[in-house]
Amino acid sequence: MDRLTAIEIFVEVARAGSFAAVAERFAMTPAMIGKYIKWLEARVGSRLLNRNTRRQSLTEAGQ
Fold this sequence. Notes:
Blueprint: H1 3-16, H2 19-26, H3 30-44, E1 49-51, E2 56-58
Antiparallel strand pairs: 1-2
Helix pairs in contact: 1-2, 1-3, 2-3
């Protein structure tokens, strides 16, 4: 996966609070957005987002 794209996606999810909204902007599925976030979290070594069914929020590490 492309590191720059993953960072762009993370920033947009942090702003929008939604995988679905960001997926539309990047012409991807919400599942693919989630894969980019998981990939980035694995590289950073920490969870960056608190996920629930309605909204994503930043963890302390994500801030």
